[in-house]
């Protein structure tokens, strides 16, 4: 087993396994700084260490992320939903169904974003770019979980087409990352710009009484704008108008199909 250690963390031999696994990352970070990308904490004789991830580890990690993305209610957010601070007003059945359709579109959009970041993170060449992709992907997991939770509150479900859109987005992301980081970052910026426009439109289209969905979308809009700025500031290529038009047409196919399916 190939391993690398940084400031071992003594946890004691009697600490329960589950509690140890839950607290290991935080303990290691307090003691030795953040866990480097490409390493994973493990325990040897009561001491927390770092082991370099193998190809098998990465495959398992990717598969776990796929499941958390596609299985309903499996994604766990790192931040509480913005909806917890909002209370809905009155909505009739038609308004509730419309809100459900809009949030299903937003959920599928986050599935696509998660797949895009995963594909790009897999093939990105620069470590800094890869780390930023992973951080952005975690924020997209938050969005995914928030939309999933809101759909459940509205009595709705996620789209049956999610696996198809996930596969297509993952392939696009991996291809962009393999070509080069500037193109990959440019693709992120163009995608986030498109997502931002969708969110703006949905904020206007939501029923007035759907304040909980509105709170979620407003926070998502702020995060997506940050992702777009980061991608451009990191050296991403600005895509020409014809490319953005093509992306817009592809996005339209997704939104029209997912609203009901």
Describe the structure in your own words.
With 261 residues, this protein is mainly alpha-helical. It folds into two domains: 4-53, no CATH class; 56-258, Ferritin, core subunit, four-helix bundle (Ferritin). Helix content is 67%, strand content 7%. It has eight helices and three strands, in the order βαββααααααα. The chain has helices spanning 17-32, 55-70, 93-123, 127-153, 162-179, 181-205, 211-233, 241-258; strands spanning 4-10, 39-44, 47-52. Helix 5 (162-179) runs antiparallel to helix 6 (181-205). The longest helix is centred in the middle third of the chain and has 31 residues, at 93-123. The protein starts with a strand and ends with a helix. Mean pLDDT is 73; it is low at 1-35.
Q: Reading side by side through the largest sheet, how are the strands ordered?
A: 1-3-2
Could you state the CATH homologous superfamily of the largest domain? Ferritin, core subunit, four-helix bundle
- Shape type: globular
Largest sheet descriptor: 3 strands, antiparallel
Topology record:
Layout: E1 4-10, H1 17-32, E2 39-44, E3 47-52, H2 55-70, H3 93-123, H4 127-153, H5 162-179, H6 181-205, H7 211-233, H8 241-258
Antiparallel strand pairs: 1-3, 2-3
Helix pairs in contact: 2-3, 3-4, 3-5, 3-6, 4-7, 5-6, 6-7
Attribute tags:
single chain; 8 helices; three-stranded antiparallel beta sheet; 7% strand; mainly alpha; 3 strands; Ferritin; 67% helix; globular; disordered N terminus; 261 residues
């Amino acid at each position: 087993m190939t391993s690398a250690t940084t400031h071992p963390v003594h946890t004691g031999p009697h600490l329960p396994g589950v509690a140890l696994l839950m607290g290991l990352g935080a303990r290691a970070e307090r003691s030795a700084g953040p866990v480097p990308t490409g390493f994973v904490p493990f325990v040897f004789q009561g001491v927390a260490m770092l082991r370099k991830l193998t190809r098998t580890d990465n495959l398992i990690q990717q598969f776990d992320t796929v499941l958390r993305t596609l299985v309903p209610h499996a994604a766990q957010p790192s931040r509480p939903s913005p909806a917890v601070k909002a209370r809905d007003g009155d909505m009739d059945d038609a308004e509730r169904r419309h809100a459900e359709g809009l949030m299903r579109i937003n959920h599928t959009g986050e599935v696509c974003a998660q797949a895009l970041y995963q594909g790009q993170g897999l093939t990105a060449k620069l470590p800094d770019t890869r780390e930023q992709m992973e951080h952005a992907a975690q924020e997209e997991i938050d969005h995914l979980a928030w939309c999933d939770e809101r759909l459940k509150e509205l009595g709705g479900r996620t789209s049956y087409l999610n696996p198809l859109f996930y596969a297509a987005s993952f392939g696009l992301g991996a291809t962009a990352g393999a070509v080069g980081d500037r193109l990959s970052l440019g693709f992120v910026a163009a995608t986030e710009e498109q997502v931002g426009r969708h969110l703006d439109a949905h904020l206007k289209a939501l029923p007035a009484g759907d304040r909980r969905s509105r709170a979620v979308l407003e926070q998502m809009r702020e995060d997506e704008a940050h992702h777009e700025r980061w991608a451009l500031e990191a050296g991403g290529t600005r895509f020409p108008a014809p490319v953005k038009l093509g992306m817009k047409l592809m996005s339209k196919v997704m939104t029209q199909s997912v609203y009901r399916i």
